[in-house]
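Troubleshooting log. The previous run stalled partway through. Resubmitting the same two chains, unchanged.
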Amino acid sequence: MDFKTEFKPITVQPQQIEGKSFEIIDQEIGPHSFTKEQYPIVQRVIHASADFELGKRLLFHPDAIRAGIEAIKNGKKVVCDVQMVQVGISKPRLEKYGCEVKVYISDEDVIEEAKRLNTTRAIISMRKAVKEAEGGIFAIGNAPTALLELIRLVKEGEAKPGLIIGLPVGFVSAAESKEELAKLDIPFITNVGRKGGSTVTVAALNAISLLAERV
Amino acid sequence: MDFKTEFKPITVQPQQIEGKSFEIIDQEIGPHSFTKEQYPIVQRVIHASADFELGKRLLFHPDAIRAGIEAIKNGKKVVCDVQMVQVGISKPRLEKYGCEVKVYISDEDVIEEAKRLNTTRAIISMRKAVKEAEGGIFAIGNAPTALLELIRLVKEGEAKPGLIIGLPVGFVSAAESKEELAKLDIPFITNVGRKGGSTVTVAALNAISLLAERV
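Second attempt completed without errors. Output:
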């Protein structure tokens, strides 16, 4: 069989591929107790990871979706822990509302301050972010240290995020940081366990900006 | 307990966190048949995903590691399908050998040509890449269409990659594209199934550049 002919019909229409993917997810996800508002986020996280276990272990604060949509509609900043999250996020929908997508981890002053205090750039970047992005959405996909520092700043009254999407991945501190996040009574989206990462964090944020456009 | 005190010891030393993570992976991975050369790539993929199933289903062409190291040492280009892969890749190690990390999907000429031919930018970006990056490493973490096009170009003699890291994720074409890659007799790293993505593709590439530095 000629290779080109074999694959062409299924590869050239990205919108069709996405629709077909969502159909497969709907068919295979099985029983769950997510609300109608939460489900599009679950669906996109599974789409980005091909991992039902990860998607089905998402946890939502009851106000998470509403708060995320509101932050976007009010043009609040989106703060990312790492550049991979920043570049993955769909910009046009956010720019319509005046939302900027920021990452502070490579800023000169963050690097300097981290050296001075002998700590991580992830931690210092959160200290800078909470000053510059009050009411914003914090999308943490990589660094548990960033999430733990953000949680500390919230507890100490130094941070007032609109929504925290906390989905860092890893074997040390990641699951623990997300457990701590899930104890807060502020809007959050997180998950249970070690899994997570930049791609699923991007998926969750993009799902919310799609909802913002629709409501 | 004071929050700061509780978490500080485990969060401020990134090198320690990585070492501890690798220990946990070694303890939990169980039986496998990866070679000594392949294992560091498996380890970093699991580290980036917290997913043993994904890591243990990696497939290596017998020449993959050697060819990847050689491409880096010869200063060949690293081509990424999407910007998330490009920004995630550690640059300093590659720059030592003169390797550039490229992504063509948002180039003006790629966008124009995709419109003209009514096809995807991912496909056209691979057509451009194979002309500009002969002998390079192709790191495909997102778009099955990019991988399928690259495979086609290899089969038709229009592409001579040094190594293909093909780990796209998804429900439509991703698993199939990787099955096709695994049939080629050229250096590849891929996996079985739907899982994959930008973060694990970055992890595989970074593992190889670390090996290049060590041998």
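Takeaways: The longest strand of chain B covers residues 137-140. Confidence is low (pLDDT under 50) at residues 1-11 of chain B.
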